[in-house]
Amino acid sequence: MDQREQNLRLKEAFEHGITYKSYSELLQQYARQGKTSGEQKESYVGYTKLAAARQRRWEKTYSPEVNFIDAIYDCKVKGEQWLIFTETWCGDAAHALPFFNEWAIATKIPLRIVFRDEYPELMDQFLTDGGRSIPKWIRLNDHFEAVNNWGPRPSELTGHYKQWKAEPDFDKSEWSLFAQDWYNKNKGRALENDIFDLMR
Can you list the domains of the chain with their CATH numbers? Predict the structure, then answer.
């Protein structure tokens, strides 16, 4: 996919994307109905229910610092807009999307969300270590060029994940508990640092 086609597809995805409010409502609806986005796996339904609870918690408790919002506002490019790829079952997304939404509202940056599995070819332009890891945040300018991107989790937590994954007795369920505890204690600060570093 050349640059021109990528820009056109990013523009199309953004225009067909949904707002955070719509996504949040859909996530809660799916959790109540025992559904999920994408393939209707039982495990994904369970993850969607967990994600709904975690995302709702951040929506109620997170409030960005004024200094951070001012810094992000000052770093905006012409026509700044954000596109996020995710799925409702994504655990890391529940700990990231509420934050991006608060920043977008405060800085008046348009934000749209699309489901990863509906845009496989476009998602393949933003792989993480060869995989379609989500969430994936794409920072766009007025020409729908990808200025930079982030995902699927804060760099500090990614460092922990690589250490855990390197262990021969790596246990995914134990890692999930560790990650959940880390997110709760960090309260979005590592994510703020990552995004500020990418935008400045």
Answer: 3-153 (3.40.30.10)
CB 44 within 8 A of CB 38: yes
pLDDT in tens, 97-149: 999 999 999 999 999 999 999 999 999 999 999 999 999 999 999 999 999 99
Q: What are phi and psi of 59, to 5 degrees?
A: -60, -30
Separation CA 102–CA 53 (nearest Å): 18
38-44 long-range Cβ contacts below 8 angstroms, 24+ apart: 38/87, 38/89, 38/115, 38/116, 38/117, 39/117, 43/89, 44/87, 44/88, 44/89
Residue 71 token pair: 């810094």
